[in-house]
Fold each of these.
Amino acid sequence: MELKKYLPSLVCGFSAGVLQVVPLVKSFSCCLVLPLAAFIALILEQKSTNNYEIISAKKAVKIGLFTGLFAALFGSLFEILITFITKQNDIIITFPELQKMVGNFPVTEEMKKEVLQLFQNVRNDILTTGFSWLYSFSLVVNDFFIDILFGVTGGLIGSQIINNRINNSKYN
Amino acid sequence: MKIRVTLFLLIALWCIGFFFEWLIPVNEKLLALLPFLHQTYSLICHQEKVKLITSNGFESLVCSRCAGIYIGLLAGSLFSIFKLPYKNPDIKVLSVCILIMLLDIAAYSVGIYHYSKLIAFITGFLLGSVAFSYFYSGLIHLFIEIKKPGWN
């Protein structure tokens, strides 16, 4: 495997993954972080190969996909690790808020109890062992789905922006 | 046409997702999905309480700006069903939309005015509706490349 080929995606995916996890920093994260990471990965790839030709959509999707993959991999890995070490995460912190929120919904008491019980179990697992199968599973599924989707979208939009710039400089 | 309708439906589904709380009274079992969706959208939005869209006691799962971006994408995809987007959209239009959004962020951050959900939504909407044509253009180029003989 040629590592250099995946280096831009690795660097940008790692950065995006960290931005999703680190407390305080993650409060600045928004829906533009991953597409931006894929866009920067495209620019880095151009610089590393010294190839400033039009970027094919296939290549853009590939780089976006790998950026998303690396972001998901590092994001979920760090999140699970931090949860395991600190026995704290968003579920624990926002649980009282969740209780209040669920309590306000116009649904039966039985339903509210069932949902809260499910989250109470997850919360207890994390507080005692630092690990919950359900939490980790949903985290990994979410991370991979969202990060890949946004990475590929960013790759496609990014390639159009770069190609547009290349075309403009050619004709000017 | 098929691609544009599919894109519209997928983006609509995504938008329904962040207005999920409004659907819970329709079927109370949906409540069980809410924390999972909350986590899904938390990956792409800070979900600061003061910046969420609220109505009737329900809250959106993304902030006003993110909601604006996605609804802008939805509007762009709806528009594309009736009128084909440009094949190679101009970068200047996107740059202007990004600049307007950054100006809003800068203006309320330095205290020129207070954060406004409406302004955040509108600036997001502008960016989203313009970004759709770039996304669509990229997708069309991808399909053309796939259809080329020898593609693997």
Note: Residues 3-87+133-171 of chain A form one domain.
Amino acid sequence: MTANPIAPVHDLLAASLRAWRVDGSVARGADGSLVLSTSGTTLAVSRGLPPFRWIVTVGARRRGVTSVAGLLRTVRRVVDPDHQPNRLRIAPAPLVLP
Amino acid sequence: MIPVCVLTGFLGSGKTTLLGRLVKSSDFRATAVIINEFGEIGLDHDLIETSDESFVELQTGCLCCTIRGDLVRTLADILRRRDDGAVPAFDRIVIETSGLADPAPILHALMSDDHLAARLTVAGVVTTVDAVNGADTLGRRQEAVKQVALADRLVLTKTDLVDQNPDALLARLAALNPTAPVLPATFGAIDPSRLFDAGVRDASGKSADGPAWLAEIAHHHDRAHDPNRHDERIACFALIRDRPIAAVALTLFLEVLSEHCGADLLRLKGIVDIAESPDRPAVIHGVQHVFHPPGFLDRWPSADRRSRMIFIVREIPRAFVEALLGAIEAEVQETAQPA
């Protein structure tokens, strides 16, 4: 385990709100979880037990996610429900290199 | 593989003049030119006089939005006619876009179609910028900004009409796209070989542009925080990592970036020190959410073995990109450790 695994995610969630153009903030809760607040929603992100690395709590609902990618996807569905995700597409032809 | 170059630039920036000169050049023979004009009656194609070894195809409508499928069909058609001997056996294709076109969807079409990708290779984007009106156009039109941001080469046209070196314009271009060399052209005169060796992919198998733009990455990193007050929505920054990046971390990073910011990721190029491939760096190249599979160089091109990625983005905070890679690397590292 890294020394403080929640610290990189705090920075990431704060930067994500800016990238998604969602007004909001991220703060540390009294229990060590991260509390993300927007004008319409408040959710909490805390460490989970395996196999879940993170738990996202919205109201009474708790949802476990297994990765940073899953965490961002879950959080964005809550705070930016109109977002249409793109899927990484790999072109058929390889790069030709020197 | 036949290289395809996209020639773009805002209305009146000198694309057709440049193309007209190029197709008369002996270095530019055997070229198929596809001209896209916005409007029912095309004119530009009548202004291009070609040699016997080159020819011009005309498309109307806006390539980047309504007739992208038509571009694929047009390319497939001229390849078939080449195979049948119905047109000269060209060894290069140039697509001249309309002045309002967004080059990104055109690159997507070239990169994504299975049949075209087997025969064509993206040789790069060349963008013309008018030395007289370019600064004003960049201040008013986002189409022009995006054309510059996506370029592999910038051609400064109408330099004969300005009395002084357009320093302000050059500074804008450098801020928007520091990896693209700016080449002056007077009355469309320019050495074709300087234009069309621009892409990451080079069908000739000669030098790709890797070393040139990689050098710019390191250089740009030192001035990546320069304010660019005219083009707040589009920014360019470099991400440099001293330590190797695990392959799975890079994959996850690109997947999440595409998922959340694909439309705003105008261009990403980089050379990456993959942990599992220490002696053979990976070259990555993407336009929005579409990426080529990474290519692996035989060796590091210089003593600098850091991972270097350059991002040209629209309203994606640098902090997000840095935090995302950091969080994913931390997760991968943590997962790899025994419980």
Note: Strands of chain A lie at 24-28, 34-38, 42-47, 54-58, 61-65, 89-90.
Amino acid sequence: MTAVRRYPVLVALCLAALFMVVPFLIVAVNAVKSPAEYSQHGPLSLPKGVYLDGLKDFWERVDYSQKLVNSVLISGSVAILAVILSVLNAYAIGIGRVRGRTWVLAFFVLANMLPQEALVYPIYYLSKQAGLYDTRLSVIIVFTVIQAAFGTYLLSSVLSRFPKEIIEAARIDGANKWQVLWRVVVPVSRPTLGVLLVFFFIWTWNEFLLPLVMLISNDNQTVSVALGVLQGQRLMDATMTNAAALLGVLPALVFFLVFQRTLTRGIAVGAVK
Amino acid sequence: MTVTAIAVTGSLLLTACGGDSDGGGSGDAKTLRLWHYEGPDSAMGAAWAEAIKEFEAQHPGVKVKFEEKGFEQIQKTAPMVLNSSDAPDLMEYNKGNATAGQLSKQGLLTDLTTEAAKRGWDKKLSAAVRTTSTYDTNGVMGSGKWYGVPNYAEYTMVFYNKALFKRYGIAQPKTFDELTAAMDRFVAKGVTPLANAGAEYMAQQYLYQLALSRADRSWVDKYELYKGRTDFHDAAWTYAAETFSDWVKKGYISKKSTSTKAEDAGVSWIQGKAPILFSGSWWYGRFQTEAKFDWDTALWPGSNLTLGSGGNLWVVPKNAKNKDLAYDFIDITMSKKIQNLLGNKGGVPVAADPAAITDPKSKALIENFNTLSTKDGLAFYPDWPVTGFYDVLTSETQKLMTGGEKPDAYLSALQQAYDKGVPDQ
Amino acid sequence: MTVTVERGTRAVGSHRRTGPRRSRPRESYALFLLPGILAFLVVIVVPFLMNTGVSFTEWQGVGTPKWTGLANYRELLDDSEFWASFRHSLFMVVAMAAIPTVLGLVLAAALFDYVAKHFGTRIATVLRACFYLPQVLPIAVAGIVWSWILAPDNGSLNALLKAIGLGSWQQDWLGDPDLALYSVMGVMVWVQLGFPLVVFMAGLQRVDPQLYEAAELDGAGWWRRFWHITLPQIRPEIYVVLTWCTIAALKVFGAVYVLTKGGPGGATDVPSYFSFTTFFEKTQVGYGAAISTVLTVIILVLSLVFLKLQTRTEDAEEGARAA
């Protein structure tokens, strides 16, 4: 292909990417608008200045720094734990080829099939019994399991195509199953693991229903629950919602951008050893 | 990498364990755990912040542990929270059979009858406002024991943009006929007169108001208190459905407002796009700050009844540990000082001193309410009688607006949902 | 490091299919499943059983449930709102599974294969981040913004159409019952596109570039390389994405809640939203539990079909590789 013919494709892709990003820009624009301006000119006008008082007020009002800490804690723990759980499960299913693979896989995927509303009352009762009601740990446990469903599914599908020769080679060298897992399989699967970490973090970060039900004390609440404070019964604070959303999105965004690097870092061509 | 991962996870988990709830305060009368969901800028929020200061001044050594909650969280989780050891000492909660009534029926609220009599709260509230404070054993309001105390009230009114009326040379209507005539003239000039939100509560409130203009107190009692059978095909409802549908056809209400939210409707009024808005006193404070034109309010013309009720209630959970402190706090919020403050901030107080209200717009707001209250004109809200009725009303009214349903079928659908959900008496 | 997937014969491989070695390793692999199974039992299976139990009762969420047997299920069969919501969820499957998967595939190949090669990985990464961004924004906020964009009177979309001279195409995107479902579908494509894209791009990294080079030398154009090399290589990812997005589509709730609340007049009602309002707004927990159980069973059956198909293909491929 000649150089000239390449550019239209790039331009088309860039336009499409811009379209994907437009709503974000609208959020950003409204986040720095004063409420009076928003009421006067509507949500889609450009702000006349940068109004940050609303942001400051909201931050103090809901103790946003605490909420951010909670969200990072919960999403981070879930991301790591769910990846570990997925690796263990997928190893057994994809590479170990345990008997009745389909059923085992279905068992794990079931975790994600259950609509969250159905989980609310049972989890509420179980956590009350276990003394874990209104703790961040309960939310971490529940979401680890829910996210691990997807991790197990994706990883086991990928690992089922893992070249057996490499494993055999390692086994011949005297490695047991545990060592093969952590020394051979995990390093090779790093792109997929990276994807899972990113997904789990972001999915858990944006979860709303279960944290709403399980985290009652303000000290334990997450960013998404705090955003809900701005939605009153009949009135809603639009500019603050946008400002808070922007603040709330930043950590997830940073997480994604950081991990993007590991996804694209070219893994050197060569043998596994 | 594995070791680091495990180390990180371990430390994260340890932190999580440490962050357990410190819920379930102690009954040592040293802290008052208080929850509400009104924004700090609202009249209630400001008044209650002042009440907290007053309380701590009057109770040396006692701290108020206030947590601002979200409305949605309380609505969805109140029964669960009140059933646990995490219940606060004092909490704001919605009024009505479906909310406070349910909680009282399930035994989750403390009976406040003796306290109300002892401290004189029952004298301070007018009969109309008191309805939402008492609930019987079936959870129906109007009679029975006291379970909640409101500090404020709400009601609906017509908001007029006087500047727009002047610009188009139309006089502000005083009667219902003048209202329809004015709307006709706006349509002729290409302006949609009424702001509306079809996706939320506004549309159904227009409809209910139209029905109320042909109804009386016993009609409301039948509908809201189940004192008789509600017939959705009676004169009042039929008039309401047909008129509303007619108004959409005539262009008084935009057909394109089926998916609008209340926020957008309010903003369109503030922007000066819609000359008339019919909605509640909860907008008042915001309009006072943000509307930059000359505006006025009036009760719906030609009707003795309009939507409204006592405001959200202070309730004391059964599991509350510091009930006496809670009662003291309620007392403070009912004092003249706090009530006057609420009135001056754009809210509708229930027990303020009329002379102490200085802002003219606030004065007008409260005067209108007092008129309404004395003539027993508060008719509550259309979605109260049956749980989940709000969704039915919204959905069916949308169909009525788009023309997908005729008024007769609309009323039958409402009848069906109402009959299905009405509690057995 | 590139994982080579040679399809040639290998001495070790041909031994694999026979011999006693295969039966013993399988049992001990099961040990790896132990933590997963325990956790899932406690967090998912037990609540699911509790939920199914509740579906046979009438309950408000507090107090004692009242046993009613199959009454909820009988009512569900007759409930036209419920079945209408299922029809709508089929549309959601198209919008959230079919379209994003296809678009995601093409985009992933374009970004990975084409843009990265000719314009550098930096710009490919930036573009990928842009496409993924909608997944990062909380759906509650995205919903508010989209309702501003799709507003009939001053919304960006209608304003844009008017500005480029297509004023007659302006619509009440979310308020017209005939259009609302398609508008919601459009927003869902916007939300979902990033997910398949990132998964596919990660999968493409496993593909041996030597395969592409060999094909290029043979004179194969971009499309033929895509069809004959890319697609088969990332087949596991395609299966996973399709299955997962279909499950997500059948369970979709957030977007409908924020954009249309199931309206106008129930035109965009989906089973999950119906179940949510039953649980929390009507507090008919028993009936809501019945809805969730039926929904879960349907999703379970569908997923089993997908999974069986997938493992059968995997087994066939394994057989082909060994041969």
Note: The longest helix of chain A spans residues 64-95.
